[in-house]
Design brief:
This protein has 274 residues and is α/β, with parallel strands linked by helices. It has one domain: Rossmann fold (3-Layer(aba) Sandwich). It is built from 9 helices and 7 strands; from the N terminus they run H-H-E-H-E-H-E-H-E-H-E-H-E-H-H-E. It has a 7-stranded parallel beta sheet, sandwiched between helices. The termini are far apart. Bound molecules: NADP nicotinamide-adenine-dinucleotide phosphate. NADP nicotinamide-adenine-dinucleotide phosphate (NAP) binds next to helix 3. NADP nicotinamide-adenine-dinucleotide phosphate binds next to helix 3.
Length: 274
């Protein structure tokens, strides 16, 4: 066994550029139409992956898919609500009929709801949990079944990347009243670790990315109100930009991370390092 491992490390037929190459891989990005999902989809496309972008508003996915096609890859747009198991199953079947396989799933679709804990309505709490946590479970379950069935050589049957948040690592001051969001992202982190253990036997790597603050449709209003306060808590003294998540997504989607599972990769400018 040790002899085998030693000989693997000397394998000169695989170089590091090949490990990161995604040519011919098929990746689904939920919420891939805008924001961080769009950015990670672009990163994967730049490394050669074919993309399925899905969200509730299909038109925005279409526009993003057309832009990604300019990079020379195939990209399709599908309507999908991650709260709805039937809608997810349709999305998975449409992906298989178009591409015949699924190699990468990025569970990125997410929402937030702001209200003080004492006033948070159950329906708003439920909406956030159902989208961010239950949606992650439902998509992983539907796509994971395909990955288990299809199998794959080269030490990976598939990659599942769940988008958590630094909000899932701890609490926040009262000026940031989004307890359902924090709870959902903490759940995504535990879900990631448990699923990584459960599906290791299938050779599916399951990891999470925990972004810090990135200006997007979701975060813009909060960032405008608290810009100085938030920046003072980020050692690198800036918010994430339109490229800062690409490397993490490509790493976790590629063979470069075949021995990484159950990990939470924090991309936050040092915010959680204080
Ligand atoms: N921005 C940040 O600072 C930040 C920090 C940490 C983590 N995150 C996480 O990163 C992810 C993306 O956030 P973002 O900032 O890019 O937000 P965004 O710009 O608001 O994008 C959210 C995406 O999710 C989709 N979506 C929402 N509900 C959905 C549903 N039920 N079914 C399918 N798609 C749905 C949206 O499209 P439709 O509305 O068309 O469905 C959109 O494509 C989220 O999970 C978020 O929690 C963001």
């Amino acid at each position: 066994m040790l002899k085998e491992a030693a000989s693997t490390t000397r394998d000169s037929t695989v170089n590091v550029k090949q490990l990161f190459d995604l040519t011919g891989r098929v990746a689904i990005v939920t919420g891939g139409s805008i924001g961080l999902g769009r950015q990670m989809a672009e990163g994967l496309a730049e490394m050669g992956a074919d993309l399925v972008l899905c969200a509730r508003k299909k038109e925005r996915c279409h526009q993003a898919a057309e832009e990604l096609q300019q990079l020379g890859v195939k990209a399709i747009a599908l309507g999908c609500d991650v709260k709805n198991p039937d809608s997810i199953q349709e999305m998975v079947e449409a992906t298989l009929s178009q591409f015949g396989r699924i190699d990468v799933l990025i569970n990125n679709a997410g929402i937030s709801w702001g209200a003080p804990v004492e006033e948070m309505r159950l329906e708003d709490w439920n909406k956030v949990i159902e989208t961010n946590l239950t949606g992650t479970f439902l998509c992983a379950q539907a796509v994971g079944k395909v990955m288990i069935r299809q199998g794959r050589a080269e030490n990976s049957a598939g990659k599942i990347i769940n988008i958590a948040s630094v909000a899932g690592l701890g609490g926040a001051p009262a000026e940031l009243p989004a307890i359902g969001y924090h709870a959902s992202k903490g759940g995504v982190i535990s879900f990631t670790k448990d699923l990584a253990c459960k599906w290791a036997s299938h050779n599916i790597q399951v990891n999470a990315i925990a972004p810090g603050w990135f200006p997007t449709h979701m975060s813009n209003r909060v960032l405008e109100h608290h810009e100085e306060l938030f920046l003072s808590h980020i050692p690198l003294r800036r918010f994430g930009n339109e490229h800062d998540l690409k490397g993490a997504a490509v790493f976790l989607a590629s063979a470069a991370s075949n021995y990484v599972t159950g990990h939470v990769l924090v991309v936050d400018g040092g915010q959680s390092a204080w």
